[in-house]
Amino acid sequence: MTEQASNGAAQDGQNAQFSLQRIYVRDLSFEAPKAPEIFRQDWKPSVQLDLNTKQKPLNGGDFYEVVLTLSVTVKTGEEVAFIAEVQQAGIFLIKGLDADAMGHTLGAFCPSLLFPYAREALDNLVVRGSFPALMLAPVNFDVLYAQELARLQAEGQAPTTVQ
């Protein structure tokens, strides 16, 4: 009798496969519209972080690109100090997962692997702009993925799966 993987991921645990192939920066953007005047003001920043993920299958059949986008707008008072965006991407080989496990892997697990790289790239970008590093707190992508599934279910939509 074939046992199912403990997370219900594969029909046959022997067939499930996950491998990170490559991590890369897809896009970087930084703007300090009020420089150099902003450097002479009292530094009382407010930070707005927007986080987004997207994924798509690649030509190789079992290969997927996952892109994690971190967009940050930092203001001091009403003035925009800087706007920074990083698109951190990865190519993953994923085989043998059922639709639910594939959705979770692409929507939560892969972005979790990309986040530390995106955070480092974003901090490096901000520091090069002569601002203090942001040091973003870790993000629980499992919770975000569950919230998105609940939102889609409440709206009567089926989650889109990448095939």
Automatic annotation (TrEMBL):
Q: Which domain of life is it from?
A: Bacteria
| Keyword terms of this UniProt record | Chaperone, Cytoplasm, Protein transport, Translocation, Transport
GO MF annotation terms: unfolded protein binding
The answer to whether UniProt assigns keyword Chaperone to this entry is yes
- Give the record's family classification: Belongs to the SecB family.
> How the protein assembles, per its UniProt entry?
Homotetramer, a dimer of dimers. One homotetramer interacts with 1 SecA dimer.
Under which name does UniProt file this protein?
Protein-export protein SecB
Gene name tied to this protein? secB
